[in-house]
Amino acid sequence: MKHPFTEKLLAWYAENGRTLPWRGTTDPYRIWVSEIILQQTRVAQGYDYYCRFVERFPDVQSLAAAHEDEVMRYWQGLGYYSRARNLHAAAREVVRLGGMPRTYEGVRKLKGVGDYTAAAICSIAYGLPYAVVDGNVYRVLARWMGIEEPIDSTAGKKLFAQLAQELLDPQQPSRYNQAIMDFGALQCTPTAPDCLFCPLNDSCVALHTGKVDRLPVKEKKTKVTHRYFHYFFVRAADYTFIYKRGPGDIWQHLYELPLVETDGPVEEGRLLESEAYRRLVDGVQVLSVRQVAAEVKHVLSHRVIHASCHELLIPPGARLNGDFLKVSTADLQNFAVPRLVSHFFSLILTQNP
Fold first, then answer.
1. What CA–CA distance (Å, rounded) separates 177 from 134?
2. Does 215 fall in a domain?
3. Among residues 7, 35, 70, 93, which one is catalytic?
4. What is the total count of domains within the chain?
5. How many CB atoms lie within 10 A of CB 181?
6. At 17, is the secondary structure helix, strand, or coil?
7. 61-82 burial, b if ≥16 CB within 10 A, otherwise e?
8. Residue 63 CA to chain centroid, in angstroms?
9. Residues 270 and 176 in one domain
10. Does one domain contain both 67 and 176?
């Protein structure tokens, strides 16, 4: 016999569940791609990315055979680029294994796949009784049951995983998991949840104790750091210069413009007199310099990037010092770049194509 919570949740889903391109399939590859895209990404943003991605890479074989640069281009703008790199590496492992694993343990071993993603894939693709636990699930259960155990504590994670598994309908694990995710996204939202018309409002502890806006609880606050980037679009006739970022920092393996990073804000005059800038243009005749943008704020999960961009004009045939790739400005669209750099490309090429 189903728990009353589960019955009401499934009834709500029957009337309110979202129609999405990855719903209605049991293809583990497409479910996997959708779940990776939706990590740290809202459905509204991820929808078009998913459609483009699976159109270009319709199966695991095509993804595994692709060059990483192309995979990153299809991910450009989504952020959290390690997701794309891990997905690509795992696709190659799946091909090497001869096919997608069909057990929770096998799926969980794939690079970039955690407990939540493994549960989603296995329940939706294979009908295995594994409950998903993500931000939506934490919020729904914490409010409905009035749980004040921090969701980012070891004890909290264990508690919520146990409760989610107990409430799961083992006969319909796919439908239940998708129902609770949609319920958290549409009904029991982080702010301004629709409590008045909630099917669980008669039994919701948070609603009856006035704690809806205080649950779920987190014990740790994320420390935000600030970084100061100064980009240079160096134009040599119809060519410019880019380079690929290395490992160990944000935007690994994406391309970007020549960069000077400073410890804090710096005036334009002092930037152009800095040792880092002088090293960049050492031995190169700079014909003109103009500021394209100043103090553009780009917010990441744990960092805030404060960025400026300058356009430098140098003689045709000249080259910058360093490991830069000289490319035609017309070919810039073929390189995967962070959204911030793409924004600067648009500004510069619109003003001076």
1. 10
2. no
3. 35
4. 2
5. 23
6. coil
7. eebbebeeeebbbbbbebbebe
8. 18
9. no
10. yes
Query: Do the domain assignments include residue 211?
Result: no
**Structural domain span for residue 66:** 4-133+157-183
Residue type, 315: P
Residues 171 and 24 grouped into a single domain: yes
Q: Is residue 54 part of a domain?
A: yes
Cβ distance 279 to 203 under 8 Å? no
Instruction: Please give the Cα distance from 167 to 71 (Å, whole number).
Output: 38
Whether the upstream peptide bond of residue 150 has omega within 30° of 0, thus cis, is no
DSSP letter at 292 equals E
Q: What is the DSSP string of 217-264?
A: --S-PPPPEEEEEEEEEEEETTEEEEEE--SSSTTTT-EE--EEEESS
Please give the backbone phi and psi of residue 264, each rounded to the nearest 5 degrees, phi first: -160, -170
In a domain, 57, yes or no: yes
Instruction: Give ∠ CA 272-278-280 in degrees, rounded to 5.
Output: 105
Tens of pLDDT along 105-136? 999 999 999 999 999 999 999 999 999 999 99
Predicted pLDDT at 176: 97
- Catalytic, 295? Answer no
pLDDT digits (tens, 9 = 90+) for 227-280: 999 999 999 999 999 999 988 899 998 999 999 999 999 999 999 999 999 999
DSSP three-state, residue 288: strand
Q: What is the average pLDDT across 143-155?
A: 95
pLDDT confidence of residue 267: 92
pTM of the model: 0.84
